[in-house]
Write a structure and sequence with these properties.
Order of helices and strands of chain B: HEHEHEHHEEHHHEHHEEHHEHHH
CATH topology of the largest domain in chain B: D-Maltodextrin-Binding Protein, domain 2
Helix content of chain B: 40-55%
Number of helices of chain A: 24
CATH class of the largest domain in chain B: Alpha Beta
Strand content of chain B: 5-15%
Number of domains of chain B: 2
Strand order of the largest sheet of chain A: 1-2
Helix content of chain A: over 70%
Strand content of chain A: under 5%
Largest sheet of chain A: 2 strands, parallel
CATH superfamily of the domain at 346-551 in chain A: MetI-like
Oligomer: heterodimer
Number of helices of chain B: 15
Structural class of chain A: mainly alpha
CATH class of the domain at 346-551 in chain A: Mainly Alpha
Number of strands of chain B: 9
Structural class of chain B: alpha/beta
CATH architecture of the largest domain in chain B: 3-Layer(aba) Sandwich
Radius of gyration of chain A: 25 Å
CATH architecture of the domain at 346-551 in chain A: Orthogonal Bundle
Shape of chain A: globular
CATH superfamily of the largest domain in chain B: Periplasmic binding protein-like II
Order of helices and strands of chain A: HHHEHHHHHHHHHHEHHHHHHHHHHH
């Protein structure tokens, strides 16, 4: 099965290729901020580089690399086993865990850093209690230092593992049971079946989740800055605003993007020509491994730990602080903030997923090099700190507005002022740039699992490419689409730096309020807004998690048995 | 072309309409970019609106980001007033050309010369001092004298201060560079860094809390953090703050390092008149009292009463170095901090 209709109609007609042109144009538009940042490479930055190289650059690089390595291991170690247990094992509380394990997703990384510091700091309640109950003084005892590289790794792993969990769970659920059953009939036990069959098959999804977590790690500013950890991202800020050198800072950002690009390329290369679509579309009810004895206890404990530390403890601390400061937070504008946060996040989620679907499908239809490259470029925004993205948005928008204004003044003697800058449109555009990678990777992972022969069959039956997408692909990849929607929604809800700088006058969100108070070291007062972000994130998390759980094909038609015939094409 | 022209003109008409409706809305308004967070400034702005009928539109964000936005928006920027903390930021705004010079007799009479830009690009609203706080049980005030003296070996492992990432420390160093020179400051900083009790981390409050809990004997922080903790509703914050006392360094020579929050009118200000009214309002007696009180800062206007806590800190002599010098020396300070390993 090598002849595919997908690539066929390219040379047959000379007219403008709408798919190809459209996708490349859209991708370039979304890549505009990234391109603007990249363009600073050509601005000479003088001897700042020499200074950086002699003093801090080595530390930036090594800290960032260690952080990525640590978070990478952390999210895999938490996310994959948890996903496997809730999708293929049976134990008490499984249904609860399947959605509850997503909850840390709603917790912004800098908020969890603040809450744990509040609890575990030298002056915090835990250590104070230890000192007062044992009569210790400073220096008498050892206590792990939270504000350190391992501390930052734990914080980020605890809130970022849901990316791996969510995507690998979707992958495990979407895997055709036949592959697993075949492996069982060939004598593989549950462990080997996991390592030899399920894990390799879920690899694209796992890698997608991992790369999202790592990109978020690279872009993190709040946690690193609060912990006094010098990473590439804090270095960018220091260079830009402390040393007053935007060109050198943008060049640092470009290096950061280089990191990401190399990572992506390595992964592509290691996958080489392997493809991961399912060869059989037969699904049946998944018989879960019924866990007994210590295995059962192990599963429950294993699923509880990330939930406890990633969500329950910090949420309780926030709730306690919020309770301590009641009255301060029940201001009249609280519901305005909530509403603003929700609808902006909803619009962004729909838009980002629609764009991702368009681009991913366009790439499938026209896998030309230019298309692939443009789409790749558009997906880089996620690894760039929000403030840098925001500046990448401000510069071209303001330029466009000002140029148009100048043109209108010259031609008609009318000043049009700023049309796009400082509007919600600019803000939502920035969100899309920043979070496109999230929706794009998720949608691509879903689309990649649909074998091309489906397209061929549908097309040969006379469906247009658009109808194939709507009537064949979208129903099959419903789970992936919902996952993408959820991820972008929650990410937007939490987004801070770009919101701060790009928002129009008098437009506030929960994240803005939480951050403003927290940044002024009024942790307790910021707790209610932080808690509201978390709560607002929970509802869609639960709803969508249930839908994803139900979206497994064949879930309802349990009788559709596998037949050993024609497993491979 | 035939097709294009109506398109273009209707597009132009649309833009004109949007622009016109935007400017119609704008009568009786003033647009404020504020690096001071909304909660701390909104009540005052509401008061201004109630008094004058001028509506205040607000965007609050970090100073650097607001400056970048102002710069890019250029002559079409809707902002009238930039309100920010730290002289370094005010200076950067002036250097970027986004502020306009204002000569207002009212403002010049109220604000001492060292607390405003010599060319009238920005004016201070309030003062904060970055001072030495000591644990009363462990340190006697006789042992303290100046920032410079903290480099002495006897303070080895006894000092808590936040990372140099923050502009407060950058400004402190910039002020020392301005008076002591770069070389002397660098030598001092090298020894000073050796005396840290721990790797710099957390914010100013965290230094105070760490000192109170026994990790270090000296915390360097801005006065309002201690004052806010002292007036906090939370007993543990109050108890921690009560263990420390304020020492005013360098009283025999240049005075204690101070910094400000301040305002300037933007170069493109579409509502210049209202902007000036807002500035003069913010420096009025009542506003000065409220603004300083809400943040536990020192008002710049003479004769405005201090909050009770600030009064308990006693009077001090402030370093009267013109604050514009802090901004000029900021980049040099950051490089110096990088070199001496103050992360």
């Amino acid at each position: 099965m090598t002849v595919s209709l997908l690539a066929a109609p390219q040379s047959s007609s000379q007219r403008v290729d709408l798919w190809r042109g459209g996708v490349v144009l859209t991708a370039l538009l979304l890549a505009l901020p990234v391109i603007v940042i990249f363009s600073f490479i050509f601005v000479p930055a003088g001897e700042v580089w020499l200074h950086l190289q002699q003093t801090v650059l080595g530390e930036y690089v090594s800290n960032s690399l260690w952080l990525m390595l640590g978070v990478g291991i952390g999210v895999l170690a938490i996310g994959i086993p948890a996903a496997w247990m809730v999708s293929l094992c049976e134990f008490p509380g499984r249904q609860f865990f399947s959605w509850a394990l997503l909850l840390p997703l709603a917790m912004p990384a800098y908020i969890i850093a603040y809450t744990y510091t509040g609890m575990l700091d030298f002056a915090g309640p835990v250590q104070s209690l230890l000192r007062s109950s044992f009569g210790w003084e400073y220096g008498d005892y050892w206590f792990p230092e939270l504000r350190s590289l391992p501390g930052a790794i734990s914080m980020l792993s605890l809130v970022l593992y849901p990316y791996v969990y969510l995507l690998s769970r979707a992958a495990f659920l979407e895997q055709s049971i036949c592959v697993l059953e075949v492996s069982r009939t060939l004598g593989t036990g549950p462990w080997r079946g996991f390592f030899r069959v399920a894990l390799p098959l879920a690899r694209p999804a796992i890698i997608t989740g991992l790369s999202l977590a790592l990109m978020e790690t690279l872009a993190d500013y709040g946690t690193a800055q609060y912990f006094g950890l010098t990473t590439f991202t804090t270095g960018i800020f220091r260079t830009w605003f402390g040393l007053g050198d935007p060109a050198a800072a943008a060049q640092l950002s470009a290096v950061l993007l280089g990191f990401v690009f190399v990572l992506i390329m390595l992964e592509r290369w290691s996958r080489r020509r392997a493809r991961f679509h399912h060869t059989s579309t037969r699904y049946s009810h998944l018989p879960r491994y019924d866990l007994r004895g210590w295995r059962r206890t192990g599963a429950i404990v294993g699923c509880s730990i990330p939930l406890l530390f990633g969500f329950l403890l910090p949420a309780l601390q926030l709730a306690y602080w919020a309770w301590e400061t009641t009255g301060e937070w029940l201001r009249a504008d609280f519901f305005v903030l909530l509403a603003n946060s929700l609808w902006v996040a909803a619009i962004t989620a729909v838009l980002a997923v629609a764009l991702a679907l368009f681009m991913a499908y366009g790439r499938r239809l026209r896998p030309a090099r230019s298309v692939r490259f443009a789409v790749r470029l558009a997906g880089l925004g996620y690894a760039i700190p929000g403030t840098v993205i925001a500046i990448g948005v401000i510069l071209p928008f303001a330029w466009l507005d000002n140029s148009f204004d100048t043109f209108m003044r010259r031609q008609f003697d009318i000043s049009t002022g700023l049309i796009l800058s400082g509007t919600l449109a600019a803000l939502i555009f920035a969100y899309c740039v920043r979070f496109l990678a999230v929706s794009l990777n998720t949608v691509e992972a879903g689309l990649g699992k649909i074998k091309p022969s489906m397209d061929d069959a549908a097309r040969s039956l006379g469906l247009s490419p658009l109808r194939v997408l709507r009537e064949v692909h979208m129903p099959i990849m419903r789970g992936s689409l919902l996952t993408a929607l959820l991820l972008v929604f929650v990410d937007t809800l939490k987004e801070l730096p770009a919101t701060l700088i790009l928002r129009p006058f008098n437009f506030n969100t929960l994240a803005v309020r939480a951050f403003e108070l927290a940044s002024d070291e009024q942790l307790a007062s910021s707790a209610s807004a932080a808690l509201a972000i978390v709560l607002a994130g929970i509802v869609p998390v639960i709803l969508l998690s249930r839908t994803i759980g139900r979206s497994r094909p064949g879930m309802k038609t349990a009788v559709n048995k596998c037949r050993p015939a024609k497993l491979a094409e | 072309m035939k097709f294009f022209r109506p398109c273009l003109s209707s597009l132009a008409a649309l833009f004109v309409f949007v622009a016109a409706s935007a400017s119609a809305l704008a009568a009786g308004e003033v647009n404020l970019y504020s690096a001071r967070q909304e909660v701390l400034i909104r009540p005052l702005l509401d008061r201004f609106s109630a008094e004058t009928g001028v509506k205040v539109n607000l965007v609050s964000a970090k100073a650097d980001a607001l400056l970048q936005r102002l710069k890019s928006e250029g002559r079409n920027s809707p902002a009238d007033v930039l309100l920010t903390v730290d002289a370094g930021n005010l200076h950067a705004a002036k250097a970027a050309g986004v502020l306009q010079p204002i000569s207002s007799q009212v403002l010049e009479e109220i604000i001492p010369a060292f607390l405003r830009d010599p060319d009238g690009h920005w004016f201070s609203l309030s003062l904060r001092a970055r001072t030495i706080m000591y644990v009363k049980d462990k340190v006697s005030p006789d042992e303290l004298s100046s920032y410079e003296a903290l480099a002495d070996e006897k303070w080895r492992g006894r000092i808590c201060i936040r990372s140099s990432e923050h502009v407060y420390n950058q400004s402190l160093l910039a002020s020392m560079i301005a008076t002591l020179g770069e070389q002397a400051t660098e030598e001092w900083a090298r020894k000073f860094v050796d005396n840290f009790a721990r790797k710099p981390q957390g914010g100013d409050r965290d230094q105070i809390k760490a000192a109170a809990a026994g990790m270090c004997d000296i915390a360097i922080a801005n006065t309002y953090y201690l004052a806010q903790m002292m007036t906090s509703q939370k007993s543990y914050e109050k108890e921690a703050a009560a263990k420390l006392a304020v020492f005013w360094p360098n009283q025999a020579d240049r005075g204690t390092h101070v910094n400000v929050s301040g305002v300037g009118i933007t170069a493109a200000a579409p509502h210049r008149e209202n902007a000036l009214r807002l500035l003069e309002f913010l420096l009025g007696e009542e506003a000065q009292h409220w603004y300083a009180d809400a943040n536990q800062e020192y008002p710049v206007r003479k004769g405005v009463s201090l909050s009770a806590v600030l009064q308990s800190f006693g009077e001090f002599r402030a370093d009267e170095l013109n604050l514009a010098r802090l901004g000029e020396n900021n980049a040099a300070a950051v490089r110096l901090l990088d070199r001496v390993g103050w992360r």
